[in-house]
Amino acid sequence: MLSQADAGKAEPSRWLIPFTQFLRDSRRLDALGGLGYVTTLATVPVAETSVPFYALMLQEKYVLRELIAIGTKLVQASYGAVSDEVGDIIDDFSRWFERIKEDGVNGAIRGQRAPLTIRTIDEILGMSFDAADLILPNGYLTLGDATSICGPGGIGKTRLTMQLAICCRAGRDFLGWPTNGRDLRFLFLQTENSSRRLQSDLEKMLTVFKPEEQEHIQAGIFFHTLEHDEDGFLALDFENQKRIENAITDTGAHVIVCDPLRDFSLDDLNSDKVMDETVRDLSRVIKRGNPKRVPLIVHHAATGKAGAQKTTGWDRASFGRNSKVLLMKMRAVINVGQAQPDENSVIIIASGKANNAPEFAAFAARLNFDTMHYTRDDDFDMEGWREEVSSSSGKGKHGRATPGTEEDFYDLTPPTGSIEKNLLLQNAGDESRDDKRIGDKRARVYLTNLIDKGRLFEWRIKRPKTNPRIEISRHEQTLI
After folding, report:
1. In the beta sheet, which residues pair with residue 473?
2. Burial grade of 443 (CB within 10 A; 0-12, 13-18, 19 or more)
3. Structure letter (DSSP) for residue 320
4. Which stretch of DSSP H or E encloses residue 257?
5. Alpha-carbon distance 379 to 114, whole Å?
6. What would the pLDDT profile of 388-409 be if each residue is shown by its tens digit?
7. This prediction's pTM
8. Angle of helix 272-287 versus helix 238-251 axis, rounded to 10
């Protein structure tokens, strides 16, 4: 008989059907958990370190099925029994329960746990670790460790996390950070975004990838969508814990995005006790059967100018809601804050905490509305931003109005030839333009208006094996 480790080396289609037929013919399929469970064991990759956990799960399932079977027989025997049979029924079924108790002696019934793992210094120094465990080699996302992404509502946390998952599956950098995890599977348990919104973002996000990359991305990222009455209700009662476990098992997910944490709680997360219990229970559900799964928790943070101040600096650890407890539970925290008071096309990415690695310096990231990807904006004036959010007047350089007009925007385009679209938008927002500066959101409105009026034209310059480059001109396209 094949072990799961041996079976994983062979193509499941070659042995799974005859194996399940053998179990069905020998009437053992249901006892082993049914067709769905056997298929899951055969097709979901399992690390060697997780085998003991799966063995315990099998033992627990066996015991539970035995209890159900004996309980059914007990009910049947009790109906119609006369008084002098009661003692015999108790004796018979007590022996049955004792047998199950002995079968479960390794932990399924008595709840006994393995001894504490103790290592010497030499043993610890002699350990080796898989570099692939570092999903983000900078240490902010690691297999088996919990990470949180905190930011105010509407800042773009979900979209940023989607970009992270997509870049991992494609083997591309994320915000300038290298990624591992091309074969990791991501499950988004989200309660805020409609399928329409997800579709709109995903269609644009996938355009920057080659067809073969798109295929690999789509094979390993899954979303809980809001389509029925019970969708979106994920508070961790017993039933929802099972629903979440089943979703993780069905998708074979390694990274589980919980977005937002608020909707997994049964009570007020402002309570330390509730926050502690919610994060603990969520981590337990996610890691059951595989301790290397990653809880990636998306959490709401303070809003407004006071919240923006906490993105970096002395108060960065208190950026998230009731973050003192969250901070203790997470191995890494990434803060996402507002860069501008009136729009979120530019955001601040900062370190809230990093237990396993040096912390990174805060930087700005700009959203490309054509691809819905964020890219680092190294020209952003971080010191000016810090000055603005910490000033009492709130009138730092980045807080100024952007009074540039549509004509000011038009004047930025060259009289002949063309200019790359992203460069044009960047130039429009340049701080040195003073009273002619145009914010990103307004600049895009001006651009759309000028194209609709026929004063500007969008050129698409073909490039080999990648998407066309978008350029803007005062004349219709002549280059291909």
Report:
1. 457
2. buried
3. B
4. strand 255-259
5. 54
6. 888 765 455 444 445 688 999 9
7. 0.64
8. 40
The tokens describing 150, both together, are 């905190």
| Pair 257, 296: CB distance under 8 Å | yes
Looking at residue 26, what DSSP letter applies?
A: T
Highest mean pLDDT: which of 36-50, 294-308, 401-415, 428-442? 294-308
Measured distance CA(450)–CA(469) in Å, rounded: 20
Task: State the virtual CA torsion across 418, 426, 179, 343 in degrees, nearest 10.
Answer: -130
- What confidence tens digit (pLDDT) does each residue in 224-263 have? 999 998 898 899 988 899 999 999 999 999 999 999 999 9
- Is residue 236 a contact partner of residue 404, using CB atoms and an 8 Å limit? no
Cα distance between residue 308 and residue 155, in whole Å? 11
Go through the domains of the chain in sequence order and give each one's CATH number.
Answer: 4-103 (no CATH), 131-389 (3.40.50.300), 401-473 (1.10.10.10)
Q: What is the DSSP string of 62-102?
A: HHHHHHHHHHHHHHHHHTT--GGGHHHHHHHHHHHHHHHHH
DSSP secondary structure letter of residue 31: T
* 64-101 residue pLDDT tens: 777 787 788 788 777 766 666 777 777 777 777 776 66
